[in-house]
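can u do me a favor
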């Protein structure tokens, strides 16, 4: 009886240690290391004129963080642009964002950046309004950031913002599109 009780207690302790360790590993309950940011060149634009988007990630932690620095547009490159019409329906841009990172860069430390507290890394995108918005109207846009690099493939894993940490979304911005 004592042996059975002791085994049950040891199993529970082992499970608790593994569960707590695993939860800490995936970042459960921790504050995000980075926040996504978005800046737009205009709040009203014509469909035939260019609009400039600046998307960035800002270190929101108290430590220096490492990020993959050669970012692009698309699910496999870091930043994803989201567009909704006035009814909240998702709008697809005229062309897909399909940038990808080059696998041979993952082992090269020069492709990574260190961001101190409050520092950020930005990307610029310029597109003609009609490439983003199908018609006149009011649209809501925002970006989400997800590291394109899993922690297992990172050159330096110390305070690394990895793909496993999920998405960071920027604030939403209203854009009025006119002819």
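np, heres the sequence
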């Amino acid at each position: 009886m004592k042996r059975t009780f002791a085994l049950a207690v040891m199993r529970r302790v082992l499970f608790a240690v593994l569960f707590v360790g695993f939860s800490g590993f995936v970042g459960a309950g921790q504050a995000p290391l980075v926040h996504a940011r978005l800046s737009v060149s205009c709040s009203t634009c014509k469909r035939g004129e260019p609009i400039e988007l600046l998307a960035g990630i800002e270190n929101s932690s108290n430590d220096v963080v490492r990020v993959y620095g050669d970012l692009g547009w698309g699910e496999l490159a870091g930043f994803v642009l989201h567009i909704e019409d006035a009814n909240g329906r998702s709008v697809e841009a005229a062309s897909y964002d399909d940038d990808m990172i080059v696998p041979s860069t993952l082992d090269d430390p020069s492709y990574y950046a260190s961001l101190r507290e409050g520092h950020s890394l930005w990307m610029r995108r310029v597109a003609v309004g009609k490439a983003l918005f199908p018609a006149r109207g009011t649209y809501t846009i925002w970006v989400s950031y997800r590291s394109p690099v899993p922690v297992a493939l990172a050159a330096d894993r110390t305070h690394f913002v990895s793909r496993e940490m999920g998405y960071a979304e920027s604030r939403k911005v209203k854009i009025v599109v006119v002819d």
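Residues 1-30 form one domain. hope that helps!!
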